[in-house]
Predict the 3D structure of the following.
Amino acid sequence: MFRECRSVRLRAVIFTGIALAPLVCLAAKEFVMPQAQPARTYPAHDEHPNEAVTIALDPYDMADKAKIFSVHYSEFGFVPIFVVVTNDGNQPIELTGMGAQLVTASRAKIPPATEDDIERRLVHPSASRSQYPLPFPRKKVKGGLSKEAREEIQNAQFVAKAVEPHSTKAGFLFFDVSEMSAPLAGAHFYLTGVRDAKGNELMYFEVPLEKYLSAPSKR
């Protein structure tokens, strides 16, 4: 009898360990910023040859790409867009006054969401009625935002203040596209406030998102 009980307990421990393994792996997952390539290598980019600066966009709107995140942002009405800035010049450029805006086909002007905007939406998901979901089961955040989710939001943000000569900086901007069925179709991205080493503002950058949508699929 003792041996039978011991065997049952052993099987229960093994079964519990196996069942919890995926949860442990999920909890241990940490956000890793994608490796940025030179901006001109992305389909959706705008190059200013005279200023030797190129910006590119890479939306993470597909499930296979969005899996780098632990939070399914599209289920809360956000589309994460990887913004890449490459400086091929011999002087640094300044980004502290940078302003970004997504203008949809219907001319709606959407600024990047702040960290607070994203956190509030995750804690109160009913505030979003997105028609632009990825095929993930909706997850409600209970008891406030987890430390892991908050750190992911912070670590994913585009935070570069400058780009040194012959280098590239990148990060994510999150746009609230809730209640939009096809927010990227016909949309344009605008970037202003980029300045050269003398403080002169460069001509604004404009990237049509159709360049991304019509590119051969690598996603």
